[in-house]
Structures are given as structure tokens and as C-alpha cells.
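Lab notebook, bench 4. Still working through the backlog of constructs that have no structural model yet. Next entry is a single chain of 124 residues. Request: give me the C-alpha cells for it.
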Amino acid sequence: MQKRNYLKIRFFSWFLGKLNAFPVDRKNPSLATLQFPIKKLTENQQSFVIFPTGSRYSSQLKSGYLLIAKSSKKPIVPAKFEFNSWGRSRLTIGKPYFIASDERLSKKEKKILNEELELKFAAL
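Model written out:
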């Protein structure tokens, strides 16, 4: 998923296209924003990198990643990238887990699942 604004920059549009990124209008999100990755995940052996906060710079988790994982029946794999200095960065990958619910998630369930993911990130 990429911010729609990056399409205006020729290099980013080309580069992110090579990574199979797709545009998201964060100011006017639509159901299609979530349907596209769900469709790709269920049809292919493809994975997505998603910042569950909606941005690299935010710390508040949003629930879109839950709907994508639940609907596609694919696992969530928490990961953390720490850039320390050139040649000394570290990528830590946690254990995959599934959202095990066939019913619509309530606000309370989403909050609990977000808190669980925050704990998984903290443990990395």
C-alpha cells in the first residue's frame, strides 16, 4: 500500500510499482482500498507489507490490517526494522498469527487485537 501522492513522483511511481504497491487515498478511504489486498492475498501466494498505523510515523494502530488478515485468512507477521547506522541495521521478524474470527469484529475486539499486536511489537 502506498500513499496516493507518491504516484505524482515519477521515480516513486515506477519503483513502488515494481514492488507491487498500490495507491491508497488516506484522506478519502474506500472499501476498495481493503478489497484489493484481500483479493490479491486470496488469489496468489503474495504478501504485503502494511504499516498498521497507516504511516511509518504514527503509533496508533488502525483496524484495516485486521480486516485484511481476517478476510484473506492469511497470518499477520509482526516485524520491526531498526536503522542504527550503515551496515548495522536489524530486521526482527516475529511469529505469524491468525485472526480467528468468522464474525464481524466489534470495536472491543479490535481494541484487544490492537493491544495484542502492540505487545508483539514490544517483544521483538
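Notes after review: The first strand starts at residue 2 and ends at 3. The beta strands are 2-3, 23-24, 79-82, 90-93. Flag for follow-up if needed.
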